[in-house]
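During the second half of the funding period, the structural biology subgroup turned its attention to how the target accommodates small molecules. The most pressing case was calcium ion, which had performed well in the primary screen but for which no bound structure existed. We therefore specified the complex as follows and requested a full 3D prediction, including the ligand pose.
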Amino acid sequence: MKKPRVLIVEDESSIAELIAVNLRHNGFDPIWAEDGDAAQREIDTAPPDLILLDWMLPGQSGLVLARQWRKEARTKTIPILMLTARGDEPDKIAGLDAGADDYITKPFSTQEMLARIRAVLRRRAPETTTERVEIGELALDAATHRVTWQGTPLKVGPTEFKLLAHLMRHAERVHSRAQLLDKVWGDHVYIEERTVDVHVKRLRESLGSASAMIETVRGAGYRLTAQATV
Ligand code: CA
């Protein structure tokens, strides 16, 4: 898979460098532009998959740039994450109004930044949800939102359905709670990891005799397996 190209528009080189290093270490392809003109040149060369846009820039502000990029066909659909200073509440609202997808308040942790970047990218490209998956005698049809076990329909709640769909699409693989939060919950990155356990418990209850297919892997997370040991 191609690494997502992230355009960092930030005039403070120390911040830009730190962001770039962290992005590179986490499978992204960062490019740095120190102002709107440089950013525009990068966009004209090759449109990025996401723009990290600082609010306070020399020349045109991040707000003006966000507005401008939202209007242009070439940049219209590129997700924009605004970087704002702490406590700039009206700025955040103006930023979202201008067409930014989300904002991050400085100073931010690498984990927060990555979580928000991933959430924004996922919103733009949601996991395809129309196919049918079958693992053993358990079947999930995303188009009709139905789950069956040995041909009998099961009642599964919406979050449990998403969780099951993800586990079935990546069966036999161990998923940590953090990975499940990222993939299944995505947009709500501040949910506690314990929430995953609660929904796994509900999912097992819904699955009845198929519940053994959802294994708890001690110290690691959860796995859906066709080789269930009861
Ligand atoms: Ca700045």
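Two results from this model are relevant to the next phase. The chain has a mean pLDDT of 87. The chain has two domains: 5-124, 132-224.
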